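Chapter review: from sequence to fold.
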Amino acid sequence: MRFERRLLALSFAAALPATATMLALLWMADVSNEVRVATALSILAVTLFILQVLHHHITFPLRTLANVVGGLREEELSLRAHGGCDGDALGELVMEVNRLAGAMRERYLDTMETDALVRAILAQLDSAIFLFDRKGRLQQTNRAGERLLRMDSSECVGRTIDELALAPCFVQPLPATIEMSFPGGSGRWSVRHSSFRERGQTHFLLAISDLSRVLRDEELRAWQRLARVLTHELNNSLASIQSIAGTLQQIVLSDTPPAGWREDARKGFGIIASRVASLTRFTTAYARLARLPPPDRAPIDIGPLVSRIAALGFATRVHVEPGPTATVLVDADQIEQLLINILQNAVDASLETGGTVTISWRVEAQSIELSVFDEGAGLSPTNNLFVPFFTTKPEGTGIGLVLSRQIAEAHHGALTLQNRECGGCEARLRLPLVRVA
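The C-alpha cell string follows.
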C-alpha cells in the first residue's frame, strides 16, 4: 500500500472504536430515529473531516520536503520549505533540510566562482590545455588550444584524440620534448599529460607548450647581450689602437719627424700591444666560458684540497679554519679553479682595506658548505655579478664568477655571494656530500 493509504487506514482504525462507541450510545439513547440518523451522519462527517485534516498535516510537509530535495538534486538551490520551528520533530526536519539547501547553494556558488577563475586562468596561459573524458573525447580547451588546432571550442569539443591528431602526444615518456606539426604551428613542443578522477570517472589532461618561441626569444636576448659586450670591449680596444695607429702613421709619413719620435713610437706600439693582449685575454676567456667540459668526478677529501689552494701564494695570507673530515665527488681541477677565483676576488677586496681572508667549511645533512670571508668594502648594489664579461676591475675579464657558478651548478651545487653585517663579503659554495668520516 502507498504511504498515504496506509496512513489513512491506520487513522481510520484509530478512530473506529471511538466512533463505534458513540454510535452505539446514540442507538441506545431515547431519541427519535430522525435524530439518531442526523447525529450519526454528523459524527461520521466530523470523523472523516478530522482524518482528512490529519492526513493533510502529515503528507503536505513531506511532499514539500520531497520537492525541496528534488530541487537540490536538479541543482535548483533556491527552494525552501516553510513551517519549521524548534522543539518540533517535523519542524526540525524542515529546518535541517533548509540548512542543507543553503549550504549546498553556498558550495555551488563557490564552485562556480572557482570554475570561472580556473577558466580565466586557462584562457591566459600560453600553453595549450586539453581535457579529455575516459573515452578520449575532448571536453574543454583554452584559447591557446584553439589556436594550436585552428578550431573554435564549438568545433573541437566532442572529438576524439585521434580525430584531433593528438595521439602522438600520449605515447611519449614524460617529460617529453617532441618535434611535431599542428594546424596552428610546427616546431619543438614540451608535452605533459596526466590523469585524474572527477565524479568517479577518469579524465585525461594534456598540456602542450611551444618551446621554439621561448628558445628563439632566449637566443635573441643572448645574442643581444653578447653583441653589447663584444661591441663595448672591441670599441674600447680598437678606438685606442686606431687613434695611436693614426698618430704613428703621421709620424712615419712626416718629412721631418718631431724630436723624440722614437720614444713616442715605442710607447704607441706598447699601448697597441697591451690592447691586443687585452683582446686576446678577452677571447680566451670567452672560449673557456663557452667550452667548459663536463666534470670528471672523483672522491676528494675537502680538507687537503682547501689547504693546498690556500697555500698557493696570494697577495695576502688566507686563513684556513679547520673543519670536519668530509669527502666530495668532484672534478678536482674545476673545483680548484672555482676556489682560486673566489679567493682571488676576496684577496683583491681585502687588499683595498688591509683586511684578511678566511676560508672554512661545515657539513650539513646532505651537503658540505664552504665559506670564504673577506674584510673588504663589500659588494656594490648590482645585479650584474654573474653577468658574463661584467667586471669592476681594470684588468678583469668578467668571467671568473660566471665560470665559477657554472662549475658549481655542473656539480649539482650552488654558489652565492652576499655582504656580511660586520663588513666585507661572504662567498658560499654548496656541494653534495658523499660521506662524512
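Two observations follow directly from the output. The mean pLDDT is 78. The first helix runs from residue 3 to 28.
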